[in-house]
Structure formats: structure tokens, C-alpha cells
Amino acid sequence: MPMERRPQDPQPTADMGRHLEQLAEISVSGRRLPVEDLEGLRQLAAAAAGRGTALRFLLAEYLASAGRVWADLPDVPQAQEAQELKAVASTLIRAIGDATVALTEGYETAHRA
Predict the structure, then answer these.
(1) Nearest CA to 27 among 78, 86, 91, 71?
(2) What are the φ and ψ backbone dihedral angles of 32, each rounded to 5 degrees?
């Protein structure tokens, strides 16, 4: 059985950095992640699968990064009412869910190939 790699050796990519920047933009606009961003995450996951990184480590690293972004989101400090904060959180949760599905799809596709 091959040794699983932990995310201590991840290779930060432009796709992941760009995606985290997209989360900030999405928190303001309320729109969904662009198709190109989701495709970039699929490719990132396929590359991680090719390096032998376990899916659970990839997802843990992604979710930890997304969690760190929360404090820096532009609309969070400006949300004056609970409803505004709820809207920002809902948008972010939807985007993180979409991204998690894209990462999983990319990883699974790489393993099937």
C-alpha cells in the first residue's frame, strides 16, 4: 500500500490562491463560483491525486484555508445586522460546497483514469 502524503507538502497553486480570492469577491456579490474556478479546482485535485495525496488531506487543507479566509472577507466586518451576516455566510457555504464537490470530482476522475 503506498504511503499517503499529508498536506504538509502541498504545492500551493495559482488555482487555489485565485479560488480563495474568489471567495472574498463572492461574499460581496452573492453570485456563484465561476465555471472556470471549479474546473481549476478539479485540475488541482487531479494533480494532488497524481502526487499520492489522500483526498481527506486535500479536503482538510481546502476547508482550513477557506476557514482562514472568513475573517478577512470584506462584508463580514461591515455586516451590521444578523440578516446581513447570514447572507454572507450562506453565500460562502454554498461556494465552499460547490468547491468541495469540484475537488472530489477531480480527484475521483484522476483515480478512474
Answers:
(1) 91
(2) -90, 165
pLDDT per residue rounded down to tens, the chain (113 residues): 444 544 444 454 666 777 888 888 888 888 999 999 999 999 999 999 999 999 999 999 899 888 888 777 765 656 667 787 788 889 999 999 999 999 999 999 998 87
Helix (H, G, I), strand (E, B) or coil at 53: strand
Determine contact, residues 12/58, Cβ cutoff 8 Å. Answer: no
Distances (CA, A) of 82 to 4, 76, 90: 42, 11, 12
Please state, in angstroms and rounded to a whole number, the distance separating the CA atoms of residues 60 and 80: 31
Burial class (CB in 10 A: 0-12, 13-18, 19+), 64: exposed
How is residue 77 written as a grid cell? 466586518
